[in-house]
Design goal:
Length: 463
């Protein structure tokens, strides 16, 4: 039976032609519809159909928005019991640490959800090229998340110096200063005995303030940037409904509009920040096109805080719920860095990432034809009993906590891993030093995203 994809609301067709108020509006809506169909409509249809036949992949990829990583643990084990590579209706699924690392580091696999077509003559390739938007989109080239060498190497080299361990250590003192200022504000708000939301008042503001200073973004815009970042987070999901997809793209358009203006301002008023340096590189030698500049800048900005927000929020919840581990950290404060990695392992900010075979290959002894999609479930790899003893136990003293795959692996290893670790360590340590008896109260609300996992609200009573 052929796939049936419902046309986007607000459009109608006659003899295969989309009609609307004007050619520009028609083409814009048509392209948006194709982007939705390729990235969400078709995959969602395939996954739902196979899920009705018992395919476990549907429970994983289309799990309820905001569901907790812990809710999926039984599913991880069920998938693992089916072998090193579970063959779903839409893609293969890998849950074993060794297999996932092999896929992520192999040159036989590239980012993307559809088979790469170097000739550009395939139906999907032609549709993707025709519908591509000029707006910043994390999963569309020239984003670092959607490119491979040599382009990926070129882009990454331009921004790597800001995220080296040495560069991050230079930010440590300033990060502690920002954290203490935010904690002072929380203390003032809590002085009356009122509850405070740790996500909006602390988890979000700490990393957004740090990355804003690195990128030359005015601090007064940080809350607006957090709001716009939600579109970037949602764009990583697969199988979005049409209405949600349009809202996501509107958010990305707003972010892109702001980014264009900010880069133009920096071109006329350069500073010592990374974006000013990237603008100067473009102007001096045209090493980055205007679109490349926006793509690199947008991803660095969005990735510079979105996952760290989740790391700090997830860590607060874990430490609150495991007071004996908090007591260990109080007695051995040198373990805070390790605790940050244990949090990343047990409740990672990113559930999974996808790769597609660029050529015929073999993984875990199984032949993998060109074009095969493999979803590598990072959260499951982090609970692989072959690597981690008592994998479901939260243990801040775990000796190999750093072996988690929450930052991916290979050439797409998270550029901001060192920064995230540092911010997580400082953010959590200073919070619990200031408020050792904080109590989470009321309902804990999760983000509506599926791929990125974190809290949107954590109300607490401070003492």
């Amino acid at each position: 039976m052929p796939l049936k994809i419902t046309p986007p609301a607000g459009t109608r067709t006659i003899a295969g032609r989309t009609l609307g108020r004007g050619l520009g509006a028609v083409e814009r809506t048509a392209k948006q519809g194709v982007r939705w169909a390729l990235g969400h409509g078709i995959p969602r249809t395939v996954i739902i159909r196979s899920s009705r036949k018992g395919d476990l992949q549907g429970d994983l990829i289309l799990s309820g928005p905001g569901s907790h990583t812990f809710d999926l643990v039984d599913l991880f084990e069920e998938l693992r019991s089916r072998g090193p590579l579970y063959r779903g209706g839409f893609s293969h699924v890998a849950t074993d640490h060794e297999v996932i690392k092999e896929v992520l580091t192999s040159n036989d696999f590239v980012t993307g959800f559809f088979a790469p077509d170097e000739s550009g003559t395939g139906v999907l390739s032609r549709a993707a090229m025709w519908s591509a938007t000029d707006v910043f989109a994390p999963l569309q080239p020239p984003s670092l998340l959607a490119t491979e060498p040599p382009e990926h190497t070129r882009y990454r080299k331009l921004v790597t110096r800001v995220f080296t361990v040495r560069a991050v250590e230079r930010l440590r003192a300033r990060t502690e200063e920002i954290a203490r200022e935010l904690l002072d504000d929380l203390e003032k708000k809590a002085a009356s005995g009122a509850d405070v939301d740790l996500v909006s008042g602390y988890c979000g503001l700490l990393p957004i303030t740090v990355i804003s200073e690195v990128l030359g973004v005015p601090v007064e815009l940080r809350e607006r940037m957090l709001e716009l970042g939600k579109g970037a987070a949602l764009s990583l999901d697969i199988g979005l409904e049409w209405r949600t997809f349009r809202e996501m793209e509107s958010s990305l358009e707003a972010f892109d509009t702001w980014l264009r203006g900010h880069l133009e301002y920096l071109a006329e008023h350069p500073g010592d920040d990374l974006l000013s340096q990237l603008v100067a590189l473009r102007d001096d030698g045209d090493r980055l096109s205007e679109k490349e500049l926006r793509s690199v800048a947008g991803l660095v900005f969005a990735a510079g805080f979105e996952t760290t927000v989740n790391l700090i929020g997830n860590g607060i919840a874990l430490l609150h719920d495991n007071p004996e581990q908090l007591a260990v950290l109080k007695a051995q404060p040198d373990l805070w860095s390790n605790a940050s990695d244990e949090i990343l392992r047990l409740d990672p900010p990113v559930l999974l990432t996808g790769r597609v075979a660029r050529r015929d290959s073999t993984i875990a002894g199984q032949p993998i034809p060109r074009g095969t999609i493999i979803n590598t479930v990072l959260a499951a790899a982090n609970r692989d009993p072959a690597v981690f003893t008592d994998p479901d136990t939260f243990d801040v003293t775990r000796e190999n906590a750093r072996d988690h795959l929450s930052f991916s692996s290979g050439r797409h290893f998270c550029l901001g891993a060192a920064l995230a670790r540092m911010e997580g360590e400082i953010g959590l340590r200073l919070l619990f030093e200031r408020f050792p008896d904080l109590k989470i109260v009321g309902e804990r609300k999760r983000h509506p995203t599926r791929i990125l996992r974190g809290y949107s609200q954590l109300r607490a009573r401070l003492s």
